[in-house]
Each structure stands twice: as structure tokens, then as C-alpha cells.
Amino acid sequence: MNIVIIGYYGNNFGDLLMLKSLLSERRAGVVYTVLTYGDGEALKQQGFIRQGAITVVELNKANRWLAYKTVIKCSAIVWGGGTCFMDEGGTGGVKYMALARLFGAHVIYAGIGVDNHKKLKTRLILFFATVMATAFYIRDSASLLAVRKINPWARREKIKQSVDLAYALGTDDAGAGGELESAGDYIIVCLRDLQGYGEQSSGDIYSQLLDVSIRICWRLRINRIGIFNADAEVDTGVSRYAQSELKDRGFTVFNIAGSDIDRSMAYIKGARHILTARLHPAVVAYSLGTPFSLYNYSDKNKKFTAETQTETCLIERGAIDEFMPTYTVGVSAVATTQRQRAQSTISEIYRLLN
Predict the structure, then answer these.
(1) Comparing C-alpha atoms, which of 24, 329, 350, 11 is closest to residue 170?
(2) Ranges for the Polysaccharide pyruvyl transferase domain (predicted)?
(3) What is the DSSP secondary structure assignment for residue 328, as one 8-state letter?
(4) Do 79 and 57 form a contact (C-beta atoms < 8 A)?
(5) Domains (range + CATH), the chain
(6) Which of 14, 75, 129, 308 could join 280 in a cystine, given CB atoms 3.0 to 4.6 angstroms apart?
(7) Are 57 and 70 in contact (CB under 8 A)?
């Protein structure tokens, strides 16, 4: 049996979490291949990829025919989490999914989200995906409603609400990072490159978010800040900016590479607070009981806080200066349920493939 998993895997913290979760129940005797729109060489360095002897194919012109050949031979193809349908270029890998379906493979979308889908092209792609898919597991109720509006004729048992696949990784994974270089009290700041998002200038937003992080440090009487680079291909510039600005203001700063997911989770677990624009540091913080503040640069962030009933942790656009962080939180029953639902979804997917 050959299973292909496809997504934007490389250096992105959230995408790597979802891929590791999806591979957590891999079966003996099954050949796994990961097709990635991200940095294939970086993905090959991940321990869970090397230890699992998993083949990685980066989706580029040089590997085009290898990718097609892999898809044609597969028994199933799975889109492994994330916001994969949106006007800003999200097509859900539809050409590879369609090719696999044409040759008789199961097609599954697992733990996915839907963002802006006003363009006719996006809506048509999403409709086609719902028609050809064996199963659609959707991570939030707003995305589920959007999918059912696009294709109201799809069977209810085919299109289901699930949760973010990253929840499947628990506290054991957060403790697998080994001894951390920067022990002691600290907070974490994770900015995202916001070029192209919103009307307010990105520079103003970065500065305002750093001001919030400083207020958090004052409130907690902390002088140490970890700069979390959740995607080295996108966020390195803004992470360096944060590091420079906070150093100039007298803080002790250290770096956290999001591509090292076990250590990143360990840092999140040990932090007194995390301020982030990226979604998945907040997902992990919520799952582990770490207080967090999440900037609403994208609707997926707002959907997350709505699903988890953590709206007070959301920093609204245009209201950063008025935001009041939450400083006390623990692992809730809802977070525990989310983990169980993610694990159950992954188990169900593998049962479908047998």
C-alpha cells in the first residue's frame, strides 16, 4: 500500500506539527511519500521523517514527472491540514488529488480550513474537491459552514467537523526537546510577515505588538524574551526586527527555531506567556495551558479563538493598544477533548484507507 501526504511542509512550525501528527499512526508495511510545496531538503532533516524512512518529493518543475508518477501509483492521497482553500492561492493541491482519484485512489482532506473564497475560481475548486473526495475533515465550524454552502448536496457523513491535527501531539511531545538553553522565566514573541494583509502598515503593527510584549514583561517582572521564528522562509526578516528592537530596549533576547518542533513545544510549555501572530504557537499554548495572546491578522485566528472560547486572548486589528492580556490559564477540558478528537480523526482516516 502506498500513501501520499501532500501539503506545505518545510520550515513552517504549524505545518510540521500537522504532518507529524498525521504520521503518528503510520502502519507497518505501508510506503509513505510526502509531496511538499515547501522546502523539501529542510523537511528531510526532520527526525520523524528520517526515522520513518519516509520519501520526500518537493513539488517543483524538476520533480514534476516524479510527483505525477508517485500520485498515479498511490492507494490514497491525503491533504494534511492547514488552510488550503482561499483566494490568496490556496487550491488544495486539486490537480494531484484529481489525478490520484482518476487512478482509483482514496482522496482525503484532513483537518483543513477555508479562508476567503469570494473568487469564482476558488469556489469551483472547492466544489470539485468536495465531489471527488472520499472524506473531508474540517477543523472549525465556520469552514464547515462554508463548505456545505458551496456543496449542499454532499453527504453529511462525507463532510465532517474535526479539529486541527496539531492537537494530536500532547505533553509528551512538548517534553521531547531536551534541556533548553534558556531556562528560567521568559515570554515568547512570534511575529508574522504581514505584507499584503490589512490596511494598516505592517511596521506600525509590529511596533504595537512589541509594545504589548513589553507591557506583558513589566506585568510579569520578566526581562527575557524568546523570538519564535515560526517559518524561516517567510518570517526571518520580521524576527530579526523584533530581536533588534527588543535588545535596544534592554531585554535579554534568545532565538527559537520553529522548524525544531519538539524544542519549540518545550519552550512554549515553559513560557509565562506567548504573544503571536502565527496560529499554531497559540494552538500549542492553548493545548499545554500556557497563557497566550493572538493577533487577528487572518480569519483563521479569529475562528480558533471562537472554537476554543478564548476570545479574550484575541488582539483585534486596529485595537492593539487597547488590548489587555490574560495572564492565567490552565489546560482546560476543552483542550483535552480537542486532543482526543484529533487522535480519533487520524485513527479514522487510517481505518478508511485499509
Answers:
(1) 24
(2) 12-298
(3) -
(4) no
(5) 2-162 (3.40.50.2000), 179-332 (3.40.50.2000)
(6) 14
(7) yes
Grid coordinates representing 105? 485512489
Question: Which residues lie across from 108 on neighbouring strands?
Answer: 78, 135
Question: Virtual CA dihedral for 242, 284, 97, 72, nearest 10 degrees?
Answer: 100
Cα separation, 185 vs 178, in Å, equals 17
CA distance 148 to 145: 5
pLDDT tens column, 309-350? 999 999 999 899 999 999 877 666 677 888 899 999 999 999
Beta bridge partners of 227: 189, 255
Residue count of the chain, please give it.
354
Q: What angle do CA 202, 203, 205 make, to 5 degrees?
A: 65
Is a pLDDT exceeding 80 seen at residue 184? Answer: no
Around 87, how many Cα atoms within 13 Å sit in the side-chain half-sphere?
A: 9
- The three three-digit cell numbers of residue 43, written as one number: 523537511
